[in-house]
UniProtKB/TrEMBL annotation:
Source organism of this protein record: Desulforhabdus amnigena
The ABC-type transport auxiliary lipoprotein component domain, residue ranges: 30-190
Keyword Signal set for record: yes
Annotated SUPFAM superfamilies: XCC0632-like
Protein name in the entry: ABC-type transport auxiliary lipoprotein component domain-containing protein
Length: 202
């Protein structure tokens, strides 16, 4: 009799655990994507070799989960909505791809990993913010600098803040909006590099 009760309790426990597992949300993984219009070309007067890097990200974003900003002082992590690769890898890669798409006549490589020498320009970027608000507003903030590749001297510096409203409050829409902010920053950088190149040859 006792054995039967124990078996019944064990069966109920296993059933309960199985039902709990079925109800647990599945983790979804996301990647940033290049979103600049392929028809938009920013042409320099002559072909350039551009190095992108180093690129750093804010420590609070350097985690698997997508970060939701609930207030100026509070952020929340979406436990089951995560990046498919470390953001410290994915964000620089997408920024580089956007700039390369905008400047198809130029060579754009990661610095220092894959950049040949000599460089014409090097772009250093420090992302200080990269998150989405509860209402779906994606915000990117970054300090970026352009250095002359030949002399190493600082040629230009700017702090940019870019926002994009997501279509809704889903993680899919949030990542799409974040991707658009990276695309807008890429346009700013590409335009400034082309302007510096034009000035140096005039």
């Amino acid at each position: 009799m006792m054995n039967r009760k124990r078996c019944l309790l064990l069966a109920l426990l296993m059933l309960s655990l199985a039902l709990t597992a079925c109800r647990s949300p599945q983790t979804c993984f996301y990647t940033l994507t290049s979103v600049v219009d392929p028809g938009v070309n920013i042409q320099a007067h002559s072909p350039l070799t551009i190095g992108i890097g180093p690129v750093s990200i804010a420590g609070y974003t350097d985690r698997p989960e997508i970060v939701i900003r609930e207030s100026p002082y509070v952020v929340r992590l979406r436990d089951f909505r995560q990046w498919a690769e470390p953001l410290a890898n994915g964000l620089p890669a997408v920024l580089l791809q956007n700039i390369a798409n905008l400047m198809p006549g130029d060579r754009v490589d990661a610095f220092p990993q894959a950049t040949p020498s000599p460089l014409d320009y090097r772009v250093q970027v420090d992302f200080t913010r990269f998150d989405v608000s509860k209402s779906g507003q994606a915000t990117l903030a970054a300090r970026w600098q352009i250095f002359d590749g030949k002399t190493g001297q600082l040629a230009f510096s700017r702090t940019s803040t870019v926002s994009e409203q997501a279509a809704d409050t889903s993680a899919d829409a949030a990542v799409a909006a974040l991707s658009r902010t990276v695309g807008k920053l890429a346009v700013e950088i590409a335009e400034q590099v082309a302007m510096l190149a034009a000035t140096s040859t005039s």
